[in-house]
Design brief:
Mannose-Binding Protein A, Chain A; 9-stranded mixed beta sheet; about 25% strand; globular; binds calcium ion
Length: about 160
């Protein structure tokens, strides 16, 4: 992680610390279902985005249903930015998986994507593509995008 990112990360800590009230999500995270989501206000490469989410005890978002996709897309449209999602095809070309190795059972690819097409930089990382109505596209992983972190709501699912 670059030094600049670390300092941005630390300076934005105040906006993402865990709230002391009854909210099930940390301040700055939006709740939907059993998850909390943070739409970043800083950009970074895919690896930087992943580290950033880990720092906040979360992971890059995994979209596993049409309903969750609608929630994420609606917010992304409101904000008007493109975001990293938490999947790559780094292990096997063409086989996208969420971080942790989970296959993508729900997808919302832009037509003709994923195309892995980046000349000398192939596309291995998943993003919400504004030009395609915020449907999914694969992109070179060192592109700088905003990103979405997800974590379980507090007290959720502890028996699992
Ligand atoms: Ca690829
Ligand atoms: Ca692509």
């Amino acid at each position: 992680m670059r030094l600049a990112l670390v300092s941005v990360l630390l300076s934005s800590l105040a906006s993402v610390t865990v709230a002391e009230d009854t909210s099930k999500c940390p301040t700055g995270f939006a709740q939907y279902g059993n998850s909390c989501y943070w739409f970043s206000n800083v950009g970074g490469s895919f690896p930087e985005a992943r580290s950033y989410c880990q720092f906040f005890r979360s992971h890059l978002v995994r979209i596993t249903s049409k309903e969750e996709d609608d929630f994420v897309t609606h917010k992304a449209k409101q904000i008007g930015r493109e975001f990293w999602l938490g999947a790559t095809d780094c292990i096997t070309e063409g086989e996208f998986r969420w971080e942790g190795g989970v296959p993508l059972n729900y997808t919302n690819w832009c037509p003709e994507q994923p195309n892995n097409d980046g000349g000398d930089k192939p596309h291995h990382c998943l993003m919400l593509w504004k030009r395609c109505g915020y449907r999914w596209n694969d992109l070179e992983c060192d592109a700088e995008l905003y990103f979405i972190c997800e974590r379980r709501v507090a007290g959720c699912c502890c028996s699992n």
